[in-house]
Amino acid sequence: MRPWVNLTHVGNVHALVAQGDYIWAATDGGVIRWDIARDTYEKYNSSDGLHRNTVTGIAIDGDGNLWFGTEDPGESTRLLYGLPAVSKFDGQTWTTYGSVTEAVEAEYEAIRGTVNENDLWMVDSQGKVWVVFSLGVQAFDGTVWTTYEPPNALVEQDATALAVDASGRVWVASQFAYGQTGGVSVFDGEDWLQFRTEDGLISPFVNDIATDGEGKTWFATNRGVSCFYDDRWANYGTADGLASEMVHKVVVDPTGRVWIAADGGVSVLDGEQWRTFTVADGLSTELVHAIAFDAAGTAWFGGWDGAIDSFDGEEWASYVTEDELPGYSVNAMTVDRQGRVWLGTSGPDPIVYDGNDRETRPGGETLSTGIIYAMASDSVGNIWFHTSQGTSRLSAEDGSWVTYDTLMEAVEENYEAVLGTIGRTRMWTIDDADGVWVGSSRYDGQAWVSYQDEAALGQTDVTAVAIDEDGRVWFGTRDSGLLVLDGDTWSGYDQQNSSLTDNWIKDILIDGENRVWVATPTGLNVVTGRWWQVFTSEAGLINDNVLSLALDNEGRVWVGTKGGVSRFDGENWYNYAILDVEDIAVDNDGNVWIGTLFDGLLIHVSERE
């Protein structure tokens, strides 16, 4: 059994490529390989060796290896030295390089034999490999890189597409990301020539470039399609038959026909006329982002919501990949009294896992507009969701939903059930005297007592609450460090009077030895009595920005950070490249469930299974 399992939301299809009987699809949820002959598919994601699950491009090199360009969501996809990372798959083994340039240098001979047009790199007629980066483009000849930047070479810095025509000229589309300027540049090996809208280009924002066998160069833009031929420009829009002016991809098929993928479907230039295909013709979606052709000349289309369709000129076929999650992120989790694991995702409907069985519970309007911050399971079996729109309860009795305006209102009306909360939750904390803490306020079944006006707390926001074995209440704050209430006595720890690494506390965990683990943006702190211990990346932690903490059934501490997950067994750290952790839960079998912001759900399977 594999130690890790990764469940994802397929999302959109960004690229397609044919390889024998296989169609490979780059999606927001990893890579999908369809076996057309058997009508089966296999998914590859971060648990298999892929760098990230958001995949934007695919290339096949001269040795038959597949290369996948990945994207770090939330960050620029064009870094100073190219895309963030690329992963190579040789059919058995995955290898990841930190950037496209690093990959090109390491495996130049194989890459210069690339057999398909792709968004990772472009190989010119002389065998040079061209890549884009934030300041322009670079070309590698096997020994040195040559950089081309504006204004002498390119129109603008941010290069968006590359192509080489039948004459060996290199075309580059570039734009200024924060302005209204852009265009295309062409290089004949010695000189650069630039074209903008005033020269005839239909739009400064070019998404893709393709060249045909007649010497024409085609440009997909956000305002239609441009064609450059014999020093003249021709432009096409919806009035000419295009599916939409927002064109994402332009591809020339084996017979020389020009196809475009657009927001309104796909269009093909057959002779002098554009013909458009939509959902009414057989497409699964009209938001199409990718086009590819197999050896038989069949056209393949990929687009919104994981749609993959094929068209052989007469018949359409659709290929549906089952979604394991309704949304990209898993924001919160809880384990109920039956041992089932509940997930709150960026999709509107919660999911419950019972062994190998998965069931989606309709959230409807209750969860459709709110971001889920925390979840809990009470003694009655109700499942609780704390969102940006309030607090909602899914009834264990009849599956109905009740929404409360505030978390405190929810506790008041469900006090007895809340007292029996299963495990830790970020929603509330239960003390030994049957008090329910919500932030700096405590409810005893009769009335609320607020400690917000205490001099120790002041007006700072409480971000985490934990209660140790001695009954002391530990408060984490946004800017005042740690505050401790021991009976009626307050004490505090901050960067001025202790070894605390940061005054912003993200999470607090009490382990089986009554040690207090404190997560901050600049390190992990452990308090044992009066002794402090600090863990940072220099001491073995994978990343200093700690977001969440959990304790597994073996007493090991799991640490979720911005840059990965660490596990501490009391002596050694073990690190895993799982980024942007939102929540961590441990089920009754000891499996560790890790929800992430962009890479779905990862499960570390217990060694006992």
Question: What does the model show?
Answer:
With 609 residues, the protein is mainly beta. The strands form 14 sheets. A 4-stranded antiparallel beta sheet has the order 1-56-55-54, with no helix packed on it. The protein has a 4-stranded antiparallel beta sheet with strand order 2-3-4-5, with no helix packed on it. Residues 74-82 have low confidence and may be disordered. It is elongated and about 85 Å long. It is built from 5 helices and 56 strands. The protein is 5% helix and 45% strand.
In short:
The protein is mainly β. It folds into two domains: 9-319, YVTN repeat-like/Quinoprotein amine dehydrogenase (Methylamine Dehydrogenase, Chain H, 7 Propeller); 376-386 and 405-604, 7 Propeller (Methylamine Dehydrogenase, Chain H), CATH 2.130.10.
Task: Describe the protein's topology.
Elements: E1 4-7, E2 13-19, E3 22-27, E4 30-35, E5 40-44, E6 55-60, E7 66-70, E8 85-89, E9 94-97, H1 100-106, H2 108-111, E10 122-123, E11 129-133, E12 136-140, E13 145-148, E14 158-164, E15 170-175, E16 182-187, E17 192-195, E18 206-211, E19 217-221, E20 224-229, E21 232-236, E22 247-252, E23 258-262, E24 265-270, E25 273-277, E26 288-293, E27 299-303, E28 308-311, E29 316-319, E30 330-335, E31 341-345, E32 351-354, E33 357-360, H3 364-368, E34 372-377, E35 383-387, E36 390-394, E37 401-404, H4 407-413, H5 415-419, E38 429-430, E39 436-438, E40 441-443, E41 448-450, E42 462-467, E43 473-477, E44 482-486, E45 489-493, E46 507-510, E47 516-520, E48 523-528, E49 531-535, E50 546-551, E51 557-561, E52 564-568, E53 573-576, E54 581-586, E55 592-596, E56 601-604
Antiparallel strand pairs: 1-56, 2-3, 3-4, 4-5, 6-7, 7-8, 8-9, 10-11, 11-12, 12-13, 14-15, 15-16, 16-17, 18-19, 19-20, 20-21, 22-23, 23-24, 24-25, 26-27, 27-28, 28-29, 30-31, 31-32, 32-33, 34-35, 35-36, 36-37, 38-39, 39-40, 40-41, 42-43, 43-44, 44-45, 46-47, 47-48, 48-49, 50-51, 51-52, 52-53, ...
